[in-house]
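Q: Please design a sequence for this.
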């Protein structure tokens, strides 16, 4: 499962990324609202974890929903008042978890929101004569097939999931750089 983590506290983002990867999630971490919006629009995620206190957190949430992004979003925040939770949920969040939280609860909420995903994501992506199998990371064409590594798979999935969407050079460079730095 592929998650986008948008958290402006670098230490927390790194810790969450490590824990999520240990629990077999593929995680892309971004550290500000602008990147969160760009990555969410360009990527194909099963879930988004977003800090509401991050600069532009609610604005990003609103823009994603306005642009038709239906990916489940779990808001992570230190703002625990009822009014804050209502505001986050009314802006389009699927769930809301206040900090500090137990890691077990976070993992359970991720499982819950991703179960509710209404979009159908086929296991086989096809673009032209290329097919990408999401189950076994195999890329194939009439000339043969090749099993991709995790990073290569993520890059190919990014391109094949949005074949008619222009991915900016900056977004692609950022994705490649992130993959290389992992």
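A: Design:
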């Amino acid at each position: 499962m592929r998650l986008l983590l948008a958290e402006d506290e670098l230490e927390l983002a790194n810790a969450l990324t490590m824990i999520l990867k240990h629990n077999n999630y593929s995680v892309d971490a971004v550290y500000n609202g602008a990147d969160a919006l760009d990555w969410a629009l360009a990527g194909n995620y099963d879930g988004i974890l977003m800090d509401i206190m991050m600069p532009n957190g609610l604005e990003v949430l609103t823009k994603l929903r306005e642009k038709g992004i239906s990916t489940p979003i779990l808001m992570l925040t230190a703002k625990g008042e009822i009014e804050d939770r209502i505001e986050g949920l009314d802006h389009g969040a699927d769930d809301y978890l206040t900090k500090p939280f137990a890691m077990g609860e976070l993992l359970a909420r991720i499982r819950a929101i991703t179960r509710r995903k209404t979009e159908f994501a086929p296991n086989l992506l096809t673009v032209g004569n290329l097919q990408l199998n999401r189950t076994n990371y195999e890329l194939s064409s009439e000339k043969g097939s090749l099993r991709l590594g995790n990073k290569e798979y993520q890059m190919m999935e990014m391109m094949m999931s949005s074949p008619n969407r222009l991915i900016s050079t900056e977004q692609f460079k950022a994705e490649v750089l992130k993959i290389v730095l992992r």
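Q: Thanks. Anything notable?
A: The chain has two domains: 2-115, 124-181. Residues 131 and 140 are 5 Å apart (CA to CA).
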